[in-house]
Amino acid sequence: MRRRMLSACCAALLVLLCACAPQKPESQEGIDLYFAVNDPQPGGQAVGCEHRTLSNTAEPVEELLLLLFSGPTEESGLIPPFPNGVTVLSWRQEEGRLTVDLSEQYGDLSGIDLTIANSCLTLTLCQLESVDCVSVTVKGNTLFYQTTQQLDPDGLLLVWPEASDDNEPLPTQEPSETPNP
Amino acid sequence: MRLGIGEVPYWHSLQAQFTAAVVVIFAAVLILLNNYPVLVYQDLVFQSKRTSLMQGQASVIASALAGPEVLTADGVSLVMEKLGGTEETRRIMVTDPAGMVLYDSGQSESQPGTYVLLSEVVAALRGQDVFYSAFREGTFHSWVAIPVVYRGVNIGAVCLYEYDVEQGALLLGVQSNLRSISIATCIVAVLLISFFSRRITRRIGDLLKAVRTVRTGEYNHRVPDAGRDELALLAGEFNELTGRLQVTEEVRRRFVSDASHELKTPLASIRLLTDSILQNDGMDFETAMDFISDIGTEAERLTRITEKLLNLTRMDSDEAVAQTPVAVAPVVERVEHMLQSLSMAEDITIHTVLARDCVVLSTEDDLYQIIFNLIENSIKYNFPGGAVFVTLTRNDGQVRLQVEDTGVGIPAEDLDKVFDRFYRVDKARARAAGGTGLGLSIVRDMVTRHGGTVTARRREPEGTCFEVSFPCYQAGEEDTP
Description:
The structure holds 2 protein chains of 2 kinds. By secondary structure, chain A is an alpha+beta fold. Chain A contains 3 helices and 8 strands; from the N terminus they run αββαβββαβββ. Chain B has 11 helices and 13 strands. Chain B has helices at about 15-65, 75-85, 120-125, 165-215, 230-280, 285-315, 330-340, 340-345, 365-380, 425-430, 440-450; strands at about 90-95, 100-105, 115, 130-135, 140-150, 155-165, 325, 350-355, 360, 385-395, 400-405, 455-460, 465-470. Chain B is rod-shaped.
């Protein structure tokens, strides 16, 4: 009897440990789609996400791009960061790098608006296990005024660092709200 | 806990309600006192940070950077070196128009190409000045972002973050002190409130017990009315009320007892006389007629008593009567005329001196009854050959009617009691005279009802003097309530 109870406890512990283990959410629980925040509040971020469930797990990149360019739902309070009429011309993946070729309307973006649009693509697509970084081209060409041609979530600062009591060095990034790549 | 009949559960009691109300008010005040100074202090610190960071350091850096058309990492580092070192509690970041970090004082090994997606930075890159401050975990955190503008073109943004542990510790200390003081005050207040509420409600409880005791018929019960507060006044009023109840109850008992006795006496006479007639078969006609005549006399007496009792009851019911101006002299003359046969039979002379301008607000019937009872009394309790003096005068706004006789008089110790119901100075004489013991009671009640007074005093050298005073009638007075 005692041995049976011990086995049950071990099994429960194992299940609990499995549940706590970090894992990419792409296939089972869906994915976060990142868009621009309509009215950013002080202390907040310029981008936000809404949770969606993928239906086509065989071609997740295709579906993610489709969902991203379809725009956010009304109740999310988010707005699409992309100009009207932008379409995905093609995409290709070389190892961990995903290159997305977009139509010419994307070239209308510059400055912080371009950064926000690129960040939304990067943060969304890098949730896929096979994607480490994202590169964006317009009609096959890179945007010459874009300083960084290849973005990954580590290169995005989403949260202001705050001081700890023991005055440790200030962290560059608090990735609590960004998905692990 | 089982409660006795009429007991109030503690949570419904006045003490509980009073304590709860005061505690809630006190707690609200304490919460306000604990939070308001803290909020004000926070606001002051926020304002101070806003001024020092936004209008101070961030503006200086932005001005210093607004030289070249394009910001570069090396150029920004050079400017920042010239401006001097950055405090440990501050972090300064400078970005290009795309939000890419060019300089970060907090991270020497900043990855090139890191983009800042914070709302403050984005707002600054869109041309706005942003300040945001918060007090979290004992530290003041402040964020500032302002654009770097060169010739009207936004060439980047300066972002500044500062944390202030010292001010935070100061605020926490104030909060802690306020909390300690509040807790201590709360404990003392709860004890004091409990004590005072218990003290107040105990007195109310005593009053409640007293009411219940009096309700059972113990009219001599009294509550302590020491003190000068409302409860003491209430206790005093309660004692006064109970005292009056006690007097009323005693009067009622005596009245019932007297009335029973007065009614029993003629009834017993009637019973005795009828028994005598019935048991004496050979009673002669004249004796029988005498007995029957006596029965009639007793029956008349019973009728008189009953009528007067009804009269008194009517006055006790305090029904409103329509008062009219009544000239007193004609009423006296009518009474004198009505009692002429009685006075002649008793050999009493009635002398009247009547002022003609005496008008009072009353009813003619009541006034007639008052004067009739007084003069009839003076005739009945007089000596044969005696006199009755009736004087009507008007003086100082008062109408005074004096009825004096030369009769047996009333002892000084009985003068106050002659107006009590069924009170007689000489019972045997009164019955013989046909008195009921209610005539003067009726006089007093009627006079009082019409706002007058009646007194009795010894007349020198003999007899008694009754004096009735009424306020003199002023024209239009009957219209006033």
